[in-house]
Amino acid sequence: MNSQSTYSRRAALQTAGCGFGALALQSLLGQQSLASPLPVTNPLAVRPPHHAARAKRVIFLYMQGGVSQVDSFDYKPILEKEDGNQFAFDDARQVANSGKRGTSERVMKNLWKFRRYGESGKWASDLFPEINQHVDDLTFLHGMHTEGVSHGPATLFLHCGATQFIRPSMGSWVTYGLGTESDNLPGFISIAPSGGNGGPRNYGNAFLPAVYQGTPVGRAGGPATGLNIRNMAGSQTTSPEARERFDLLQRLNAEQLQRSGSGSPDASELEAVINSYELAWRMQSRAPGVLDLTQETARTLSLYGINEQPTDVFGRQCLMARRLAEQGVRYIQVTYGDNSANPAWDQHSNLPKHGDHARAVDRPISGLLADLKQRGLLEDTIVWWGGEFGRTPYAQANGTGRDHNPGGFTVWLAGGGFKPGFSYGATDEFGAKAIEGKVHMHDLHATILHQLGLNHEKLTYRYAGRDFRLTDVHGQVTHEVIG
Question: What is the C-alpha to C-alpha distance for residues 62 and 54, in angstroms, rounded to an integer?
Fold first, then answer.
């Protein structure tokens, strides 16, 4: 080997520049590439929907661990009447735990009083008194059922449509199908995601191009001050030196792209890197302002319960979701949870703890609904509230909590063309199993996509020789809940 290398400084810069991943010149320099005739397309550009859309974006309020439907929005008077009595229940969780069907369990009464709310006369409990003031804007799905009896599989199924396989999350599918309306922010942002029960897979892109993965902001259980995007602080994109470096890397990457040849795998990867770093450059000047809640009025902060306990942290997350929605972010995922082995709403032995969690989220969610509505955003924004499953109407192990229940639970939707003040579906008289108007999680995914203008059967991506989609080979749009 010749020890006297002839590797020029120019060649070194060209090679290194590709590793740094500077940006294509279209957006910043009049959609023209200085060094290459090859166009670098923006994979996040707005795409036309399959059909007329009723909504432009989604805010998913994920209640990690599973809220008890029979203690919140699915009123079952028989639980009070039969409290303490033994009944034979036949559900998936029982079979998983004991291998037996029809095991006798002790019925447990509602711990919060139910009453009627709104012009719709919706029965709801005192667990969420602030949200209850908005029942006439909400669409309740009481016949939900899903896959997975434990948190890990059920959480993955909720976000990705599969209990075990690595699949793209719903936010990734949405941004892949529609792009984003924001030039300066990611199309998919996950606020305070949990590190457990799937972790990054719940906002991951899997086999979709990396540009469609969710961008995390903060972490579940983290402090209110931790709601930021990594590596954004202290960025200086306005200095002449930074701009010169940026332009140099652009030219190097454009030249490398030209060498790779249009349509080659290398060119495709490089285009993805170029677009990712172009977005990162723009984010450095735009994102910090969007995430800065000090720009809001005292009245707005109070609406969300910010600077008060116990609502401060989740209030900030919900207000941030509204600010991101205003800026055109397509899919915003907000997690109320933590990173422990037992997620927030997972009360197997201490159901009264539901009350603590409800006090932390009730006012922020109510504030978000009111804020979106008064700004005219609720009409084309889908707000989706729910967990990975519900809870049993009986006490687990004759104790003071409820077990997991994937067989029947409640979620609610607001805005986006759904029927307001409307309840659909039902569980049995105890609230154990969905029996009427049954909506599988695949059906819910298909229905939300439909409101965004996406046909879930046509939203596919070819990988490893077959076409994949969020709903796999399942899912039916639930037209009954559409206004």
Answer: 22
* pLDDT at res. 356: 97
**H or E, element range at 188:** strand 188-191
CA atoms within 13 A on the CB side of 123: 13
Q: Cα dist. 40→29, 33, 37, 256, 352 in Å?
A: 13, 8, 9, 12, 55
pLDDT for 144 equals: 98
Residues in a beta bridge with 395: 402
What percent helix, strand, coil does the chain show, rounded to 5? 35, 20, 45
**Is a pLDDT exceeding 90 seen at residue 302?**
yes
pLDDT tens sequence across 425-450: 999 999 999 999 999 999 999 999 99
* Both structure tokens of 372: 């979106």
Q: Which tokens is 30 given?
A: 């009049």
Type of residue numbered 316? R
* Contacts of residue 107, Cβ cutoff 8 Å, sequence gap at least 6: 78, 79, 82, 83, 84, 85, 86, 87, 393, 394, 395, 430
How many Å apart are CA 438 and CA 143, to the nearest integer? 4
**Structural domains of the chain, with CATH:** 49-229+298-481 (3.40.720)
Amino acid 22: pLDDT? 34
Q: Is the peptide bond before 310 cis (omega within 30 degrees of 0)?
A: yes
Q: Is the pLDDT of residue 16 over 60?
A: no
CA dihedral 138, 144, 148, 153 (to 10 degrees): -20
Q: Could you give the CA distance from residue 64 to residue 67 in angstroms, rounded to a whole number?
A: 8
The CA-to-CA distance between both ends of the chain, in Å, stands at 74
pLDDT band at 259 (very low <50, low <70, confident <90, very high): confident
Mean pLDDT of 207-236: 75
Largest distance between two CA atoms of the chain: 90
Alpha carbon dihedral 202, 205, 206, 211, in 10-degree steps, equals -150
The vertex-281 CA angle with 277 and 286, nearest 5°, equals: 135
